[in-house]
Design a protein that fits this description.
There is one protein chain. The chain is an alpha/beta fold. The chain is built from 2 helices and 8 strands; from the N terminus they run βββαββαβββ. The protein has a 3-stranded parallel β-sheet with strand order 1-4-6. The longest helix has 13 residues, at about 70-85.
Length: about 110
């Protein structure tokens, strides 16, 4: 496991950061009908996940990613700050939104 001395530098991750939005029905999914359930919204993206876990292991981490100029980007920046991820070098697009990963599961989570 790579864990540099705290004074020796940082690890840079180039990768995705997005908002994961997941839906799960309370009961068996009925096609073409309303399905009561719950929604989960959380920070995600392979690059963000790796950066977050490296921070949890005590490493200094920089994440270079692409963000929009929107509330999802604000939420990701809050997450970066809480985790100790330096994402100051990331691209911020005025035209394109922050990436979103949307998934729907069955009632058992699969």
């Amino acid at each position: 496991m790579f864990n540099p001395d705290k004074n020796s530098g940082f690890i840079t991750i180039f990768g995705s950061a997005n908002i994961d939005i997941g839906g799960m029905p309370h009961y068996e999914l009925i096609e073409r009908d309303s399905n009561p359930g719950q929604i989960r919204i959380s920070p995600g993206g392979v690059g963000r996940n790796i950066a977050h876990n490296l921070c949890l292991l005590g490493n200094k981490v920089k994440l270079v990613t692409a963000l929009g100029h929107d509330t999802f980007a604000d939420r990701l920046r809050e997450n970066f700050n809480e985790a100790g991820i330096d994402a100051d070098e990331s691209l911020v697009s005025e035209q394109d939104p922050t990436s979103v990963y949307l998934y729907i599961t069955e009632e058992d989570g699969n």
